Amino acid sequence: MDGELRVTGTVRPQGSGKAKTAALALQPAPRTRIEAMTQAGDGTIWLGADSALYQFGRSHRQLRTLQHAGGLTRRLLASADGSLWVGTQDGVFRVQPGTAEVVRLSQPGGQPLRADINALAEAPDGSVWVGSGKGLFRIAASESKLQPVTTEMGAGLGNPSVIGLLFDRQHTLWVDTAVTGLHRLRRWDGQRASFERISERHGIVNRPFGGNLLKYGANLRDDAGLVFFLFDIDFFKQVNDQHGHAAGDAVLKQVSARLARVFRDTDYLVRWGGEEFLVVARATPHAHAAELAERARAAVADQPFDLDDGGCLSRTCSIGFCCFPLSTVHADALGWDAVVNIADAALYAVKSAGRDGWLGVLGARSESAAALLTWSRRPLAEWARSGDLNVVCSPGHGGLAAVQCEMD
Question: What catalytic activity does the UniProt entry give for this protein (predicted)?
Answer without folding.
Answer: 2 GTP = 3',3'-c-di-GMP + 2 diphosphate
